[in-house]
Amino acid sequence: MAVITSPDYPGERLIACRNATLADERRRKREVLLAATETDLSQIRDATRRKHAPLHGEAAIGLAVGAVINEHKMAKHFDLTITASRFDFRRSEASIAREAALDGIYVIRTGVSADVMIETEAVSAYKDLSRVERAFRTLKSVDLAFCPVHHGLSPWVRAHVFLYMMAYYVEWHLRDAQKALLFQDQDRPGAEAEHCAAGLSDQGDQLGIGWQ
After folding, report:
1. Do residues 70 and 37 make contact, with C-beta atoms less than 8 angstroms apart?
2. How many CB atoms lie within 10 A of CB 59?
């Protein structure tokens, strides 16, 4: 969407991106929370207007309203009116609109120059950090079973870790080489076409993989 630089932070870039799917999900969740908050606040408003034992007093009303607001975290999206004998509320459309304008937007900060890595490459590199997280999980899980190191000499410790990293390096390259078969790529229809062109569909059936 945009690249932001500032002389106050030389050599750094802020890359603003927008995920449409995430924007839709945040919009949906906000509407659900707004509706739930309105339902609970309406009950408090009705309690202040009932004839028998109405809820009166700013402190008592405020406590009841605060419990609802804290539960749904929607305080900034409502304008509240509380008096000793009255409570009312309405949505703050301006606040909702300000938040909605940022739905789905995330910002990546990088110190790598544009000559080395353009914006799209920087975003892809950021998303690939999930591979690093998976590497740590792989080292500690049943894949490589990185057990506690009981060596006493530092060269032995380094050699121990080096062997595990080499094992993960080989595993990563095998997955990358067969990413079409393993659906590690993002273009699934294209991958399926590649499978068929390479004659891999029979192999997929043998492996118990169903092409859909």
Report:
1. no
2. 10
